[in-house]
Amino acid sequence: MTARLTSEFWVAAHVRRCHLEGAYAMVRRRGAAEAGAIFLIVDRLDGRNDFYVPAAQSEADDTRARSFERVLEGVDGLKVEARLARELRFDPDVWIVAIEDREGRAFLD
Question: A Pfam family name for this chain (predicted)?
């Protein structure tokens, strides 16, 4: 059985991948190192943003892989922040990764 990557390791690798692909990414909030939920905000630098949350485990193909679901697409930053505030009230121990990419890529493939 293969162990799942820690949230801290996954986030570090994802930020590095974004940089390698020519996008800017930063960790906006650090959560639980081992298994904190990870949220992604993609700023398209034109006023439009996308927001990704962890996919339900029932929708994941492999329980060890991380999957995400885009719940907001092409919205202004205030809508993303409002949704994020609701998520943080539910679970304050989360990771938030902010990505700036004109093409709107989240690099989740």
Answer: DUF1491
Q: Would you say 99 and 25 are in contact if contact means Cβ atoms under 8 Å apart?
A: yes
Query: Which residues span the domain enclosing 93?
Result: 7-100
Domain count, the chain: 1
Residue 2 lies in a domain: no
Give CA–CA dist 105/109, Å, rounded. 10
- CB-CB contact of 99 with 24 (8 Å): yes
For residue 41, which of 87, 4, 89, 91 has the smallest C-alpha distance?
87
- Asked if 40 and 51 count as a contact pair (C-beta separation under 8 A), the reply is yes
What's the predicted TM-score (pTM) here?
A: 0.89
Average pLDDT of every residue of the chain? 92
Rounded to 5 degrees, what are φ and ψ at 40? -120, 135
Q: How far is CA 104 from the centre of its chain?
A: 13
Residue 51 tokens, joined = 């927001």
| Residue 105 domain flag | no
